[in-house]
Amino acid sequence: EYNIVRPKGYTVSYHANPEMEKHHFGQTHPMKPWRLTLTKSLVSAYGMPFAMDNYNTRAATYEELNAFHASDYLDYLATAPPEDTPRDYEGNNPSDPKFNLGGSDCPLFHGLYDYCSMSAGTSIDAARKICCQQSDIAIAWGGGLHHAKRREASGFCYINDIVLGILQLLRCYPRVLYIDIDVHHGDGVEEAFKSTDRVMTVSFHKYQPDYFFPGTGALDDNGPKDEQNPGAHHAINVPLNDGITDEQYAMLFESIIGKINETYRPSVIALQCGADSLAGDRLGRFNLRVQGHGACVAYCKSLGLPMIIFGGGGYTPRNVARAWAYETSIAIASQNKIPDIIPLHAPWREHFIHETLFPTLEQIFGEPRANRNTQKRLNEIIMHVHEQLRFVGH
Ligand code: TV1
Ligand code: CA
Ligand code: ZN
After folding, report:
1. 111: nearest Cα among 150, 88, 77, 135
2. Cα(105) to centroid of ligand 1, in Å?
3. 12-61+111-389 to CATH, choices 3.40.800.20, 1.25.10.10, 3.90.79.10, 3.30.1130.10
4. Is 185 a catalytic residue?
């Protein structure tokens, strides 16, 4: 019997809007908002809500979204007709998309504006709980949509809830460290804060320009090249190849984040936990297990700073739910002794065919993907990042 208890001396808060989960991007679209329902059901099956403050969040207001996004973009997002409504000859032409809205990646689905403002509301509320120190770790699995730009949708992301959350954190903390373990480059967040030294962005991602979205985030992309710009050297990118393992990832993560913590000395951490970096993800390329993904959360927690945790990508829903439930338990518990066997009374149990929280790579794939990351290349990456950090400090 797993008896999770409320931690002494600190508070974890869980921010979610169950209405968000009812939205659909379309039958074949990889983004499935119901993965959030699956996550919540696992979190509940393990009894975790008793050990956290649970908030049903409201939708963000237009004014709140306007803190980052352009008005003309928001107006179009709020009024554009869903794609399956009949159009007349003068009507919106889907082959002439505005703001990158209405293609296959960013479809105009029913309730889109509500969905976006709920996701943003979740992240803004989580950030405010960190700001007023009512929470030490705030969890917003419905957020993490790192590709959205000021006036452009991109890669399944319409509203950049992370940027909106970090803007809240900047009201009360001098320096924010943004860490992104989604398999894709966190381009929207990097771009939004490229000209400030009050936010350092770090993304780990699969990098293969022309073959893997979005194609940015090379090792030598470290922010503006103009040394007069305060944002210079404040973007860190960790480009990786297919098949990286838990051990390699942990080595890189601890070496890079540990060094950044010493040099940049952040006052708060914003961690994007995209679960598409897990083995067996429909869009991902890595070999990370639930344990290896969670180790990043545990390491960040060990730094003892207030932290906001966002969701992000993740396209094999049962594995997304496993990782995010495990990471919720890491946020709560001081040691991770969560049982591997998923509690019997869990609804949605048919999704967890192996009935365990930590399936082996063989259970996930049959045969794992070949590892294309050499130790030599990983050492080069670490060297380059450490060199960048010589320019950073207070
Ligand atoms: C509809 C139906 C849309 C099936 C999209 C995979 C689909 C993809 C689909 C898909 C898919 C992408 C591109 C190509 C840019 C396009 C939440 C030139 C089987 C944070 C976003 C990936 C990742 C976008 C988002 C990417 C996140 N990959 N099937 N689309 N064009 N888009 O490559 O970082 O996880 O794939
Ligand atoms: Ca990333
Ligand atoms: Zn992703």
Report:
1. 77
2. 5
3. 3.40.800.20
4. no
Ligand 3 geometric centre to CA of 26 (Å): 18
- By residue count, the chain amounts to 394
User: CA 145, CA 172: separation in Å to the nearest integer?
Assistant: 23
Q: Which residues contact 39 (CB under 8 A, 6 or more apart)?
A: 141, 320, 321, 324, 325
- Please give the number of the atom of ligand 1 that sits closest to the Cα of 186: 34
Contact indicator for 323, 144 with CB cutoff of 8 Å: no
Domain limits, the chain: 12-61+111-389
* CA-to-CA dists, residue 364 to 39, 77, 183, 354, angstroms: 18, 38, 17, 9
Measured from the CA of 314, which atom of ligand 1 is nearest?
A: 35
Could you tell me which of 123, 129, 142 has the C-alpha nearest to residue 19?
142
According to DSSP, the residues that pair with 177 across neighbouring strands are 200, 269
Amino acid of residue 385: V
CA distance 266 to 264: 6
- 348 CA from centroid of ligand 2 (Å): 29
Cα of 289 vs centre of ligand 3, distance in Å, is 16
CA atoms within 13 A on the CB side of 49: 12
Are 370 and 243 in contact, with CB atoms under 8 Å apart?
A: yes
Measured from the CB, is residue 155 less than 6 Å from ligand 1? yes
Task: Give yes or no for residue 315 CB within 6 A of ligand 1.
Answer: no
Closest atom of ligand 1 relative to the 25 alpha carbon: 1
Ordered mean pLDDT values, 10 residues apiece, the chain (394 residues) = 82 98 96 96 93 98 98 97 67 69 96 98 98 98 98 98 99 98 99 98 98 98 97 98 98 98 98 98 97 98 98 97 97 81 76 84 84 98 97 82
Kindly name the residue from 23, 147, 184, 205 that is annotated as catalytic: 147
